[in-house]
Specification:
7-stranded mixed beta barrel, binds iron/sulfur cluster, binds alpha-methylisocitric acid, 6-stranded mixed β-sheet, Aconitase, domain 3, 3 domains, alpha/beta, Aconitase, domain 4
Amino acid sequence: MGLNVSRKIISKHLVKGEMKAGEEIAIKIDQTLTQDSTGTMAYLQFEAMGIDKVKTKRSVAYIDHNMLQSGPENADDQLYIQTVAKKHGIYFSKPGNGICHQVNLERFGIPGDTLLGSDSHTPTGGGIGMLAMGAGGLDVAVAMGGGEYYITMPKIVKVNLTGELQPWVSAKDIILELLRRLTVKGGVNKIFEYSGPGVKTLTVPQRATITNMGAELGATTSIFPSDEVTLEFLKAQDREKDFVELKADEDAAYDEVVEINLSELEPMAACPHSPDNVVKVSSLKGIKVDQVGIGSCTNSSYADMMKTARILDGKTVNDTTSLVIAPGSRQVLNMLAKNGALSSIVSAGARVLECACGPCIGMGQSPVTNAVSLRTFNRNFEGRSGTVSAQVYIVSPETAAASALTGYITDPRTLGEDVKIEMPKEFIINDNLIIHPAEDSSKVEIVRGPNIKPFPCALPLAEAVTGKVLTKLGDNITTDHIMPSNAKLLPYRSNIPYLSEYCLTPSDKDFPKKAKENNGGFVVAGSNYGQGSSREHAALAPLFLGIKAVLAKSFARIHMANLINNGIMPLVFKSEADYDDIDEMDELMIEDAQAQVRNDEIIVKNKTNGHEYIMEFKLPERQKKMIISGGLLNMVKAGE
Ligand code: MIC
Ligand code: SF4
């Protein structure tokens, strides 16, 4: 049997383990990326490891999330990242240069290489044939130091694309269709590998839209082959030398196959409040729209913006609709400025934001109370926009622009003849906002602002773990619930004591208070706990509040790794009845914890009702050791 693309890349980077689905493997990481909201913590952890220079082929630190600078905190963190990058061999992408995933695709992505990023949308790099994965900051710090990255060997799902997208149907509609079919849990421990004759009909940015939102499936990553379309893109970026052809063998085996006939797709929308709540746009006709946002790392490429400009050209945004647009990178913005498309955008009445994540992470542009907001972004979790009552729909740029004009959710196919955008033969290339690391690092002084506080470190596992159930939650709790992110909180990503005051408050407003009063304890949750963002803060804040274990029906991949990295036990219910049996404020106890964690099952006693629960704890040896030692950093420091 031949190999598929994913297995080819994994086998080339395999350091430990066997490529058997479900088993732990370790792979070598070629490139890393960080962004500012997770980067500060990642670099503090990197510094704590005492390594002088990164050992990767390339590591880049981007500033793209935390851009409001409403006090000195953001600017201080940015300066810390800039100086720490300079000292330790890391390239620094200055604020204004663009969103990490977009810029990495344009300027640094290399087919066949591995990329680890402290952001869950790092799989965007799969659009250019990279094996690109999101992780917590500590895992990225370890990779920068030359350490391997551990994952469960995923199942490889072939997504066979046939046919061709019809006018006004876009890449976003492909991934929304997949989310509709498979849900936000459908991709856990899977790689989605795109294949079939439909692949060559998609440009690299279209492919990247799809791999980016594979994160919403909970997938380990998503990947496209690297072919003549990839070569054309790299040539236009003046990076022909980085091209490597990558295709699956004719007789490549896959664990599962999903068929998508592109010709049959229609414009789709993810309805509030989950990216898998997908319906046809035509079924939403007539819903009034208060706000439209076009941009974010999933839909802010040159072609996305050009389409938007063409749709808006010569027209005016509806009187009661606010349209905000954030181009993904300075390259994109520059191209729009040079060819005049920016003029169509501003003439139509759009508000143009800087090239950054912006409203996608709640950094401004929160819509009106009870708003309907249409966004080309990738997440529509409740409250993420900054307006708790807002109804956020996720759509393609075509649907977004059409709706901004009419003021109602509008199927773009009603606009008449399709707008076709040719990919440029040459992009405008200007890397003057990429600062190179210092040749002589001894001369670089790292600048630390007063907002940078020491991060919590877990203690080695106690003999008996006891505490109260501080909260009992339902399914699909996101890391946005666990550690909310918005314009008020994002400046405190390097200040865990402050952030912890908001931990889990969207789900249970008294959680921090209860945690403090009871000296920490346990969290009980339903399935897919910790889906969404990679933010390690969703483990660090609970750690700071004394959370010892989370008992859930299942966990999202990155968050589960973050919990373990920080010494918090992820325990999985074996039966629904056990979940039902536990009440908030029940007192739980794990006796003989040191011995029990060596087993694949752990007995948790409920002292309040006298019952016992056998919880699953099937972790590789390495992760069990991590729990015993009190986290990954303790292990790294001890040279293990
Ligand atoms: C997000 O989309 O939620 C973020 C902000 O990009 C996060 C990272 C973070 O919390 O800073 C992500 O997706 O990992
Ligand atoms: Fe930024 Fe939004 Fe992309 Fe996260 S999903 S990296 S916040 S643009």
